[in-house]
Amino acid sequence: MTTKMRVRELSGELGISNKELIHLLRKLNINVKSHMSGLTDEETEMARKEFNKASHEPSIEDKRVRSGVIVRRKKKPVRQPKAEPADTAVQEEPPVQPTSSQSPTPSTAAPVSDADDEATPSIPTAETEQPEDAAPETATDAPRDVTEEVTGEVTEDADASVAKAPVQEPSGEASQPESGEDDEKKATEKKRGKRKKSKKKKAPQPAPQVKIISRPDPAKEQPAPQPASTSQDKKKKSFKKKHRRTVEADELYRKVRQAETSRPELVGSRKGRGKRGRRGRDQVQTKPMVTTQPIKAAKRKIRIDEAIRIADLAQQMGIKAQDLIKNLIGMGVMATINQSIDADTAAIIAADFGYDVEKIGFSEKEFLAPVHEDKEEDLRPRPPVVTIMGHVDHGKTSLLDVIRKSHITSGEAGGITQHIGAYHVTTPRGEIVFLDTPGHEAFTAMRARGAQVTDLVILVVAADDGVMDQTREAINHSKAAGVPIVVAVNKIDKEGADPDRVKRELAEHGLVPEEWGGDTIFANVSAKKKIGIDELLELVLLQAEVLELKANPNRRGVGHIVEARLDKGRGAVATVLIQAGTIHKGDAFTCGLHAGKIRAILNDQGKMLKEAGPAMPVEVQGFDGVPDAGDEFVVVADEKVARKISDSRKGKQREKELAKETKFTLDKFLAAKAGEKVKVLNLVVKSDVQGSQEAIIDALNKLSGDEVRIEIIHSGTGAITESDILLASASNAIIIGFNVRPTAKVKDVAEQEKVEIRFYNIIYKLVAEIKDAMSGMLAPTIKEVYIGQAEVRQTFNVPKVGTVAGCAVIDGKLVRNAMVRLLRDGVVIYTGKLNSLKRFKDDVREVQKGFECGTGLERFNDIKEGDIIEAFEEVEEKRTL
Ligand SMILES: Nc1nc2c(ncn2[C@@H]2O[C@H](COP(=O)(O)OP(=O)(O)OP(=O)(O)O)[C@@H](O)[C@H]2O)c(=O)[nH]1
């Protein structure tokens, strides 16, 4: 018999809960242990038939009216009108006492008095046995109530007057067990026992409905939310008992509270129980128990932050963490109980157990988002923010120096220039802000954090040297960021300077000068001789005009960190480039994981300011920790808000760290491809020599097809650098290293940035793997390799160990820990592992053909003489196209 379907799959198909299906299966004498149990075709078919049959039958629900009296009411599966019966029922049936935490439930109330009034028990009519005959749809022919005295007699009656009592469609809540579950269970079982006896005396009476409402073992079943939480209640108590003084207990208690808060009806039941104590339980049970209807999806909600620990998720769903982990493994996610999974993964896995995941958490947006968008009339032009990039020694520092010295604001002349990583210069045509940090860090690091502060890049290329490695790198970084480039051809004063050669070389990289029909602005300069500097600045401003850079200075200040450090005397200080609004001394702010209050604002001349507006680079003091370059600096209402945001971010960061995930991997690319979302595979290719680099790029480019495209966002020779990692991180790229290795520091950065680096030393292997990735075939196939066979000659029962087989190896060999299958007359009886392998009394690693040995099978004792143990190995094999 082959296992085709799992219980949970079938329950999904039938649209009922696992619990209900398990009842149904048990009713059919199909023994299943949990929602993960497998069903054969026949069993599945039987279950379907039974379900179809049952779904046409009216079900019976039990409810305890008062101590010793339980009402059994037969109800239609057909949806009944709600309002009318509700009113009638409530008015007519005062004896039922709904709990204080629950509104009176009409369907409960209605039949009660009728049932109570029924003095004479009678056997149900044929209608109970042939439910198909029951006419559906009308309110008048609905329920049949049965009153049972717990003390003995079973009374099931199809009294017409009762039948007329209207029924309200039971809500999802109604099916959820309440406190005092155990009591009820006992009582129900007791009743059943007695009923069986009395039935024997009277007439044969099938009671399929009774089965439906019997309670499953919550530990084994997939729980509906309510039982889950009831068990959480218990768990909480036992936890509190066990770990009274531990933090975990508090944490768990908090989670339980959280779970309850997300399901207010639970809180009600808990409260009710508290007030009423044990006596109140009976009343709680008067809530109708309808188990034939799956619990509403809305009730099965789990609210989580960015990520959640497996243990917490399992607890919130009221299932065992092991079950959750098993399902995760099934999805290919390896996680331990203490690891966190992100909200998306949690959503998928929770869906398997019938729960929805809702992302919640403190929403900082409420505090950060501007109340209203900037109006056009509020926007004022702002200076461009420029980054100077280029190859080593091509003159970046010299150029910035000459610009700064000759263009500092007159008022500031004489001031001592501070190194704050950014400078504000004034030219006759306008103001420009220069970022004086290594280009890549200046914006690639920021971009990796989702920030972009640079409006323009000045690419410095020495006229005597031409385009070099870092020139290319700078071009790629700028292109990836979508920032326009102005080229400064430097050192034109030098002998051997050939600006045209630079133009030609840059044109090959897509930077075609305007005079050649392109759109890149070129300026010939000499930083040393101060030639062409003003023209360069003019061109920069011209280009900036095209960009129409504007910002609203009259709002709360927002900016980004350019650089930050810990100062001995002043604590954490950072250069902030204000991008919009104005910051003031005394403002509370949040920045990355940190918060603070602005204690001092200094400009690049070291002058104290009271405030700073858009595109102003300033040094800010007052941070509670050192932020990272690229972190967003936002002024908030007050320090309390700032702290709250910072705390929330720190919490999320912790969860993210726990959920450790690589930003982008080939496997992820594959997964994404399955959903047809990602069609571009971004690569950064670094190789040892130019020759191999060209060969690799050629080969990779040839792989690009209509459906999946390869985008080499950067390539170069030499070691993998931090800037490569930052670029890859910012562009969701994978780094390909050919005959190159990263330094330990770069490795650290890659780890921090969660960038995947793949190393190769053979081109065709590199190409093949990328090809595999692109064709979605990288997932390895599992291949079986035969190891050997042994025949069982004798079996021994060893106490506490189980059956041990004395075998003779007849082919190949037996290897300890190998996978094995037990064959009896050529039929596989068992597949698993060898758990011991001995020669005489010694444990051995393997036994060759022709030798005898003793062996045991893991968790299997039914070994017989003559059985064959076949050992094999499973090896992963990469698939090829
Ligand atoms: N002849 C000439 N030499 C220049 C010019 N600009 C810079 N240099 C020289 O080139 C050398 C390198 O200049 P830097 O400004 O340090 O170059 P850099 O690009 O900042 O170098 P790194 O900071 O190492 O990346 C220095 O010796 C400068 O004097 C120029 O326009 N003409």
TrEMBL record:
Residues 188-203, 234-245, 270-279 have a biased composition (Basic residues). Residues 381-550 form the Tr-type G domain. It is found in: Cytoplasm. GO terms for cellular component: cytosol. Residues 49-286 are annotated as: Disordered. GO terms for molecular function: GTP binding; GTPase activity; translation initiation factor activity. Residues 49-65, 246-263 have a biased composition (Basic and acidic residues). Belongs to the TRAFAC class translation factor GTPase superfamily. Classic translation factor GTPase family. IF-2 subfamily. This is Translation initiation factor IF-2. It comes from Desulfoplanes formicivorans.
